[in-house]
Amino acid sequence: MTMLGLMQQQDLRISQLIEHAATHHAQVEIVSHVSDTRSYRSTWGEVRHRAKRLANALTDLGVLPGQRIATLAWNTHRHLELYFAVAGMGAVSHTVNPRLFAEQISYIINHAADEYVFFDLGFAEQLVAIAGQLPTVKGFVALCERSEMPALDLPNLLCYEDLIAQASPDFEWPQLDENTASSLCYTSGTTGNPKGVLYSHRSTVLHAWAACTVDGLGLSARDSVLLAVPMFHVNAWGIPYAAAMCGAKLVLPGPGVGGERLYEHMVKEGCTFSLGVPTVWLGFFQYIESQRAQLDLTQLKLARVVVGGSAAPRAMIEKFETLLGTYVIQAWGMTETSPLATIGNLLPAQQDLPLARRFDIQARQGRAIFGIEVGIFSPEGERLPHDGQRVGEIKVRGPWVVSAYYGDRAGAALNDEGWFSTGDVALIDTDGFVQITDRTKDVIKSGGEWISSIDLENVAVGHPKVQEAAVIGVAHSKWQERPLLIVVPKAGESLTAAEMTDFMKDRVARWWLPDDVVFVDGLPHTATGKLLKTQLREQFKGHRLSTDPI
Ligand code: AMP
Prior knowledge:
The chain is an alpha/beta fold and about 550 residues long. Helix content is about 30%, strand content about 25%. A 9-stranded mixed beta sheet has the order 2-1-11-10-12-13-14-15-16, with helices on both faces. A 7-stranded mixed beta sheet has the order 7-6-5-3-4-8-9, sandwiched between helices. A 4-stranded antiparallel beta sheet has the order 17-18-19-20. Bound molecules: adenosine monophosphate.
C-alpha cells in the first residue's frame, strides 16, 4: 500500500497570485497606456485594491460563480484588474478578440453566454452593431471615467470607474477548488467556428510557474516587461499571471503597438523583457531602421524578447542580436496549450557556438518545458523518433493542455493515450529542439515528399528588400503540388522573381525552390496576425505554374 505524504494540501488559485504580488511587490509599477496620449501609473498593490472593489461591484451586479464576463479590451491596468477580480471571485474571464469579424464576436459571446461585456471605448461601435444579437448579456461596462462616457445605444450601459468608486475594497477571495474554471479564450481558427478553451486556476498557476523558471521564460522581479502581445489572445501568453507571481514590472501599451511607441516605452520604462508576434517586431525594426541616425540604441536595456505565434524568421533573430544585443527566445504553443509548450533556451554546449550557428538553433521552436510532453506522430499514429529527420504531427500532453473544448465532455479532444493533436507538423532533433515545418493543412506535398512552407517563408523574408512572404502549394500535373511564393516588397523597393530565386537557391534544397514568384501589395492575416493561407489558396487556386507542362 502506498503511503500519503504529510504536506499541506492547498489548492492553487489566481487570487494567491495577486495577493502575493500586492504583499511582496506592492510598489512595483504597472504602467498603463490607456490611449496614445494618456497613461496611468498603477502598482501591484493598487491592482489588488481595485480588483477587490471590482469583485464587490460584480457581486452587486448579481454575477455568480462560474458565470462568464467578457472583455473587448487592450492591454491596460483596467483589463489587468478584470483578470484578477473576475477569476478571483470564482467567475470566468472571457477575453474576446476584437479583431474578429462581427459575426464571430457575436457567435463567441453567445456561445459563452456572457453576462456582462467590459469594453474599451475604441470598440464601442463594434458592440453597438451587434448588441441586439446578444440575448445573454445583461449590461455593458465602458472602461473609462464618468467624464469620458460616450452616448451609446447600448442597453444598461455602465461606467467602470463609477463601479470601482462605489464598491468597497474589502473582499475575501473565496476558497475555490483549484479545478474551478478561471478564464476562457476562443481559438481563431481559419476554418469553422471558433472553439473555446476553458482554463482552470490550477492550469493557470502551473503555467505561470513554468514561465518564471529560468529555463522557461526566466521572468523575475528584476524584469520590466513590455507586454506587446494582446491580453485578448491566450491571456497574453499567461504573462499577467506570471508577472504577479514573480513581481515583475509591467508596461501595458494599450492600443499603440506600432514600432515608435514600443521603442519609446522600452527606453522610458527601462524594459528588459518583451513579448510579441513576428508582425509586431517587423514594425519595430521598420521604425528603428528608418530612424537609425536619430536613435541612440544604447539606451535600450532589452535583454530578452519572446517571439511566438508564428515562426520567428532567422533574419529577425539576427537583427535583435546584432543591433540591440537582445536574445530572442522563440516559443511555440497555442491557445490549447495555455500557450507555452516549447521554449528556445540554449543548452550548455550551445552557449559558445559561433553566432551564425546559434541563430540556426534559435530559429527552431525550442524544447519542451517541464509539464509538457511532446511527441511527433506519423499519419498512421506511429510515434516517430527525435532524430532531426522524421517529420510528423506534434501531439502534446500536460496539465495546462486542453482536455475538451468549451461545451464538450472532459477528454473529448484527446486520443486514447491522452494526447492532444496540435495540427502542427514538425521534426524534433536529437537535443529535443522542435522545428515546426507547417500546419498539417499548409504542408506542400510534392511528388510524395513534403516541402515546408514555413522554411521557405523564413528564407524569403531574409532578403533585404522583402517585407513579408507567404508560400502555398499550387496544383501541378506532375508533382501534385509545387510551392508558389507570394512576396510583399518593402516600401519603395522593386524586386524581380529572378532576384528572389537567386537569393534562395543556396539557402534551400534545389527541389524546394518555388516554381513561381508573384508580388502583391499586402497579405491577408487572421485576427491574431497569422497568414491567412486559406484565403491565399482560394485567391491563387487558378494560378498556372510556369513549370507545369500541361
Ligand atoms: P493560436 O492558438 O492562435 O495561438 O495559434 C497557435 C498556432 O500558432 C500553433 O498551432 C502554430 O501553428 C502557430 N505557432 C505558434 N508559435 C509558433 C512558432 N514559434 N513557430 C511557428 N508557428 C507557431
